[in-house]
Every structure is written in structure tokens, then in C-alpha cells.
């Protein structure tokens, strides 16, 4: 999905529990974005936001990079319906241990369907549908995300080779297609919980994620 523009909005100091980062805000403008729901026409222009947390020297070797998709329920409330919060903590710890790296946090809540739609999908999952079936029942595609914005941000940061923390082969492929070489994939697998076992099973069996 081509961006008409990707603009750095801000760049500030960012102390965290894990260590000292810089926090950068980016906005990408897409003209005529693709539809993601049969019943909801897309806007003429969509603005996507993403945050980059940058630690240390990211240029002397391919840095550790995590592309993390927003999950309010997991990231903020530590939900055990999914594994997002544990993955976020894993990525922060890996980057901090190494002393350099980039965490790209994209505002593609609910695999791009938005928070309210994700909560409606949860209702359907409570009635027995899996994550993909619930999206489809609501008229959405299984996964409405694309990873063009993180790729463009990496280019703006002068990073063309990365070691990517993910279990999702689509993220690897999306970066490669955008001209960012993934020299290594680092597993983002975290221990499962009884409450997210089915969620992980669907990722493994229907979405091709590299989890056991
Ligand atoms: N539509 C929908 N989205 C969900 C659901 N549970 C979590 N998400 C979203 O899924 C996104 C995370 O995607 P995942 O498929 O868990 O993992 P990934 O980012 O593709 O892959 P990794 O890099 O391995 O973590 C976040 O945006 C969550 O908000 C759900 O039940 N339905
Ligand atoms: Zn989540």
C-alpha cells in the first residue's frame, strides 16, 4: 500500500523501566486505501501513526527490530486472551540486553480492524468462533494489516538490514518486499496460557505463524 508521505513528527528522550530510549512519532498518509470490510467503504485518505523506540547505536550492525501491532487489551491491561504483552516485554528485554535496537509500535489495533471491532470479535469468540472466523463473520478480512509504514520508518532511520523479532512470516516477507533485508529472524515465542491456547493454535494452523 503506497504512502503519499511518511513524516517524522517528533523525536524526544524516553526513559523506561528497561532503559533509556528515544521516542519518535511518525505519520503516514495513504490516499485511496484498500477496503478491509465488505460493508464499510474506506475513507479517501487514511493517516496511520506509529511510534519508534530507539536505543543505542542502530547503524554499526543490523539492529534488533520488533514490529509490534497495537493491542490495548494485552499491552495495557495484560490480557491473557493473547500473547501481545509478553511479546512486548520480550522485545524490550532483548533490545535492552543488547543495548541497541528499535521497537516499532504501529497503531493497527486488532490486526487493523480497530478496537471496537476487536471487542465484537471477542464476543463471537466467546460463542465458539476462532479469531479468523470472528473477523470474517463481522465482514472483515482475517488480517487487515500491512507493514509498509514500519518499512518506510526503518528506511528513514537509515536501517536497511535488520534482525527481526517475530513469529509471523508475513512481517519478514513485507520487509523484504520493501527492500529491507531480514538477516535473521528471532523467535518471539512466549509461554502459553490456558486462556490463549486456542488463539495461538489459530495463529499456528491458519496463519502460518512459527510457534510450537
Ligand atoms: N481481530 C483480532 N485481532 C486480535 C485478536 N487478538 C489479538 N489481536 C490483535 O493481533 C495483533 C497482534 O497480532 P498477532 O497475530 O498476535 O501477532 P503478529 O504481530 O502478527 O506476530 P508476531 O510478530 O509473532 O507477534 C494486535 O494488533 C492485536 O490487537 C483477536 O481476537 N481478533
Ligand atoms: Zn493482544
TrEMBL record:
Identify the metabolic or biological route this protein is part of.
Cofactor biosynthesis; riboflavin biosynthesis; 5-amino-6-(D-ribitylamino)uracil from GTP: step 1/4
Provide the Gene Ontology terms for cellular component. cytosol
Fetch the CDD domains from UniProt.
GTP_cyclohydro2
Q: Which GO terms describe its biological process?
A: riboflavin biosynthetic process
Q: What does the record's cofactor remark say about binding?
A: Binds 1 zinc ion per subunit.
Q: Would I find Nucleotide-binding among this entry's keywords?
A: yes
GO MF, one example: GTP cyclohydrolase II activity
| EC numbers on record | 3.5.4.25
**Which residues constitute the catalytic centre?**
143 (proton acceptor), 145 (nucleophile)
In the UniProt record, does the keyword Chaperone occur?
Answer: no
Cofactor (UniProt): Zn(2+)
Official protein name in the record: GTP cyclohydrolase-2
- Native species: Tunturiibacter gelidiferens
Amino acid at each position: 500500500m503506497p504512502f503519499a508521505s511518511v513524516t517524522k513528527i517528533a523525536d524526544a528522550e524516553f526513559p523506561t523501566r528497561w532503559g533509556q530510549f528515544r521516542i519518535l512519532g511518525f505519520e503516514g498518509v495513504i490516499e485511496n486505501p484498500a477496503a478491509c470490510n465488505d460493508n464499510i467503504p474506506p475513507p479517501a485518505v487514511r493517516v496511520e501513526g506509529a511510534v519508534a523506540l530507539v536505543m543505542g547505536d542502530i547503524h554499526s550492525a543490523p539492529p534488533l527490530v520488533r514490529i509490534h501491532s497495537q493491542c490495548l487489551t494485552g499491552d495495557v491491561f495484560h490480557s491473557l486472551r493473547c500473547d501481545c504483552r509478553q511479546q512486548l516485554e520480550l522485545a524490550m528485554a532483548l533490545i535492552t540486553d543488547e543495548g541497541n535496537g528499535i521497537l516499532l509500535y504501529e497503531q493497527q489495533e486488532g490486526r487493523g480492524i480497530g478496537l471496537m471491532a476487536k471487542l465484537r470479535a471477542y464476543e463471537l469468540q466467546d460463542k465458539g468462533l476462532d479469531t479468523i472466523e470472528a473477523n470474517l463473520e463481522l465482514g472483515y478480512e482475517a488480517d487487515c494489516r500491512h507493514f509498509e509504514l514500519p518499512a518506510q520508518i526503518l528506511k528513514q532511520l537509515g536501517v536497511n538490514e535488520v534482525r527481526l523479532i517475530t513469529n509471523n512470516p508475513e512481517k519478514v516477507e513485507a520487509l523484504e518486499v520493501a527492500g529491507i533485508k531480514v538477516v535473521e529472524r528471532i523467535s518471539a515465542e512466549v509461554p502459553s496460557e490456558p486462556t490463549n491456547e486456542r488463539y495461538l493454535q489459530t495463529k499456528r494452523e491458519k496463519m502460518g505463524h512459527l510457534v510450537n
